[in-house]
Amino acid sequence: MLAPVAWRTPPEHYGPWERVTSLLTEGLVAAGVSVTLFATLDSVTRAELDGVCPRGYATDPEMDGRVWEALHVSHVFSRSAEFDLVHNQLDWLPLAFDDFCAAPLITTIHGFSGSGILPAYRRSRSAFVSISDSDRSPRLNYLATIHHGIDFTELPAGPGGETLVAFGRIHPDKGTAVAIEIAKAAGRPLVICGPVQDQAYFDSQVAPHVDGSAVRYLGSIGPAERARVLGGAGVLLHPIGFDEPFGLAVVEAMACGTPVVAYNRGSMPEVIDEGVTGFLAADVSSAAAAVASAAGMDRAEVRERAVARFGVERMVAQYIAAYQRLLA
């Protein structure tokens, strides 16, 4: 399992790719699959751990991510003949050098950062798994679509409340400033959680509204705090400004019984069962209007639907089936 190395696997705070990689790795081990996890050396796993990167480069300004990712991929491929297959969770870079991978390669595409990276995918011999049907490129062939799974024991049902929550990196793509507009229009307080990815955006469009009351910013929070915040919220706001490939925070909120109001883009129609786990909106006014209806949803039913659709065991079983098809 070739993990990303921006963060530890599993991440202590932010790191959705590392989180999914960890859940899949541990699930495969539990299912009796022999797995070697190539990740940062401070990672925590029941699989065999190997790697060259001492810690996540995103946590250390002295580390150049380009260098450490290249060293990481080189190390994995140097051992690739020892394995039945290599599962790449690290985006396009391993694909550029997959001639040096001695085992069949399968790549989970966690989302395209832009069309400029497509040449690496199109020249690769890797098999591809998309994380939603909406995120498929018409220029690639896919082995399967496998939605992410989550560990529901980490995200118990919560009591809800009046507060709204926006969860994810602080960036125009995630619509953090738009979530503030929606919360104000709905007349409800808002809690914002996530790392600042665009400092100028945070400084100009988010920070001026953070007053500790109507709008609070908690920073990047860990698993225990994530469950408390998501479970204590009335509704998760997800007014994305891009075509979201999956939206892990959306499913994590639903796991806690918290319904979602999201903009109707990307994978949101796939992930949200409208009228059951949340609503899809087109703009600030329609999203604000949907908040009251969403807050009145049956939280037990929201969690029940999430459990039925997004369990980690389902994800693991689908990946094992994909591995078997590839090896056959």
CATH topology name of the largest domain? Rossmann fold
Uncertain runs are: none
Proper CATH architecture of the largest domain: 3-Layer(aba) Sandwich
What's the story with the biggest beta sheet? Answer: 6 strands, parallel
Percentage of residues in strands: 5-15%
Give the strand order of the largest sheet, numbering strands 1, 2, ... along the chain: 9-8-7-10-11-12
Shape: globular
Number of helices: 12
Order of helices and strands: HEEHEHEHEEEHEHEHEHEHEHHH
Q: Tally the beta strands.
A: 12
**What's the rounded overall pLDDT mean?**
96
Work out the helicity level.
25-40%
The top level CATH class name of the largest domain: Alpha Beta
CATH homologous superfamily of the largest domain - what is it?
A: Glycogen Phosphorylase B
Q: How would you classify the helix and strand content by structural class? A: alpha/beta
Domain module tally: 2
* Radius of gyration computed on alpha carbons: 20 Å
- C-alpha termini separation: 19 Å
